[in-house]
Amino acid sequence: MxxxxxxxxxxxxRKIFAIMAALLALFVIVLGVGIKFTKVxxxxxxxxxLGNATxxxxxxxxIMASTSISGxxxxxxxxxxxxxxxxxxxxxxxxxxIAISYFGLIAVNLVAVIIMKHLLYPKTDLDSAIITKMxxxxxxxxxxxxxxxxxxxxxxSRMKDTYASVALGISMxxxxxxxxxIFMIVLYTNRALRWNPFNFFFVEKEVVTPLTHMMTKxxxxxxxxxxxxxxxxxxxxxxxxxxxxxxxxKSTQVSNL
Length: 257
Known about the structure:
Elements (H helix, E strand, L loop, with lengths): L1 H7 L2 H28 L4 H6 L5 H14 L4 H10 L5 H34 L7 H28 L6 H26 L15 H6 L4 H4 L3 H22 L3 H12 L1
Helix pairs in contact: 2-6, 4-6, 4-7, 4-8, 5-12, 7-8, 7-11
């Protein structure tokens, strides 16, 4: 397991993470300056929304998830690792890398927002109310990212091409929201449909804006636990579809022929 983790946290992957972290911080800075001069939002809204950077963070997480299980080089490495490591170990190592990357990026997001708040809105106190809202936004995003990443790992589990996998993963961000919106049309007449998995992709919005429950027909605690449940289900299915030794065995058989 330690060797697998070391491989997942290779210098190449660390460089990719550093680039993403830098872009995320730059996004927070540029947007903060733009908001300050245009006066579109106030210091409190900018701070509690985490600089409106979670949308970019979501794209980065989808890219990490989709590329971790697809692509010529990735599949070749999985085939090689499957000869000496269990399927569960390989899959777990990838999940740990994704988790470490997420917590690193959300930390960069939080620190960048706090610094920019002090620089751009020094008169706005970082009191307990603002901190609570920031933590709520981060918590809601954490649950949403877990649900989305699990779903992306599921739908991209059989993709062989990296670019196609990334494109499909990113499209899932918007497709899930679109399908959820379609379901909402019939939620008023059939409340049972509120438990459909796509409805839970609004978890981040509902945690930040509780009135969203009027659309989802779910209370905050229901949508949080439901999202965690569906996320775990998607993760289990993704693991079942995850190919390791089978690919390695097929490659060996082909080479022997």
